[in-house]
Design a protein that fits this description.
Elements: H1 2-27, E1 29-34, H2 40-44, H3 48-59, E2 63-68, H4 71-79, E3 85-88, H5 90-97, E4 101-111, E5 113-118, E6 131-134, H6 140-151, E7 161-164, H7 170-177, E8 182-186, H8 187-196, E9 201-206, E10 210-219, H9 224-236, H10 252-260, E11 273-274, H11 277-285, E12 289-292, H12 296-301, E13 303-304, E14 308-309, H13 330-333, E15 344-347, H14 355-365, E16 371-374, H15 377-383, E17 388-389
Helix pairs in contact: 3-9, 4-5, 5-10
Length: 391
């Protein structure tokens, strides 16, 4: 009998140990420092053990800290809420802020990024067929490039080559050596380089302000007390660990803009007339049909007065080179009121919504003779003070 009891007691002891170990793991918070290739030095200057100790003391529980400059992996982690605390560039924070995190702040003032090209390239549209030098694909520099190209109606697919490397500053060297035609740099880096290398390159486009340095976000489901104490540590005590203190709190719009970069529609669409909300209203008064391409739920909640509903169901990339065959716009064919010879206006949720852009392009390809695109969509219509209905 005794020999039978010993394994049983040992088994329960093992189970108890595993349960306690599991509880300890669950109680541990996780944090990651994500570094742009250009900020590697700043990331390596952080003393991990000291930072873990400081964060653990502030949170009142153990915090395990890791570092990474593989931004694709980090961005995936933001989408799955893989860490309790993200310390990283603006695009990391921007992604996390859409998925249950709140902003603590940023360590540096906001920056602007420039798309610069060789002197003979007069403007962004002339980049078609050219070579672009960028860091890895989930770098902030790449986000900026995609956004500025899209604004001019270009896609990466319109370029002869996109060269992805680890070090953004080398893009300017590539221009000097003639191995690239354009690159993206921070405004401050450009000022220094262009002064030393006059006449080689010019600025083709400039971004809106983007949060600089590291941005810090924490999970909203942490206790309010823990979040407040962590915020205090990042503001007053982090420098002892080599991490610059949080000194600014950028506007939420700056992070939204970063999240949308590369997703914004171009400012023009060949073969289609882009119009303002006021112009759309005038065309409506003259008999044009305004088509709302958003979801039925959005249409019922609030819409432009007089708009007709025809949802554009998109699965293709938000890109000027999108594949319309992947999308569903059968709703257009079911609109009995549409005459291909008469003016038709397409609208959705503003400049960052691609449904009306794609719908207008598809309609023009299907033989509609007079196609208009209200790029600003319902937001512009509403801001202009024009009548809406629904809800």
């Amino acid at each position: 009998m005794n020999t039978n009891r010993k394994p049983t007691g040992g088994k329960w002891g093992v189970l108890l140990f595993l349960w306690l170990s599991s509880s300890a793991v669950q109680a541990q918070l996780t944090a990651i420092v994500a570094a742009e290739p250009t900020a590697r030095k700043a990331a390596h200057s952080i003393l991990r053990t000291s930072a873990e100790s400081g964060l653990s003391k502030a949170a009142g529980q153990t915090v395990a800290l890791t570092t990474s400059d593989e931004l694709a992996d980090v961005m995936r982690a933001t989408r799955s809420a893989g860490y309790d605390i993200f310390i990283g560039p603006a695009q990391v924070a921007a992604s996390a802020l859409q998925r249950g995190y709140e902003l603590v702040g940023a360590t540096h003032k906001s920056d602007r990024y420039l798309l610069v090209g060789l002197q003979q390239i007069a403007a962004v549209p002339a980049m078609k067929g050219r070579r672009l030098y960028l860091p890895q694909q989930d770098s902030l520099y790449t986000y900026m490039a995609r956004g500025m190209l899209n604004e001019a109606g270009l896609s990466f697919q319109d370029l002869r080559a996109v060269q992805y490397e680890k070090f953004p500053q080398a893009g300017l060297t590539a221009l000097t050596l003639g191995t690239a035609d354009a690159t993206v740099v921070r405004e401050d880096d450009w000022a220094e380089w262009s002064a030393a290398h006059p006449g080689i390159a010019r600025v083709l486009a400039t971004s809106q302000p983007v949060p600089g340095g590291f941005s810090i976000v924490v999970k909203k489901d942490l206790s309010a007390d823990a979040r407040n104490k962590l915020a205090q540590w990042f503001s007053a005590s982090s420098s002892a660990s080599g991490l610059p203190p949080v000194s600014v709190r950028p506007e939420a719009v700056e992070y939204r803009r970063v999240a949308e970069l590369g997703l914004f529609t171009p400012t023009s669409l060949p073969g289609v007339n882009r119009i303002t909300a006021r112009e759309a209203q005038n065309l409506q008064a003259q008999g044009a049909t305004l088509v709302d391409t958003r979801t039925e739920k959005e249409f019922k909640a609030k819409r432009i007065r007089g708009a007709v509903f025809a949802a554009y169901v998109e699965k293709s990339l938000k890109d000027v080179a999108f594949n319309a065959a992947q999308d569903d716009f059968q709703a257009l064919d079911k609109l009995q009121s549409l005459d291909k010879a008469k003016p038709v206006i397409f609208a959705c949720n503003g400049a960052e919504c691609w449904k009306s852009y794609k719908a207008a392009k598809v309609a023009a390809a299907k033989g509609f003779k007079s196609v208009y695109w209200l790029r600003g969509g319902l937001p512009e219509w509403d801001e202009t003070g024009l009548p809406t209905e629904g809800g």
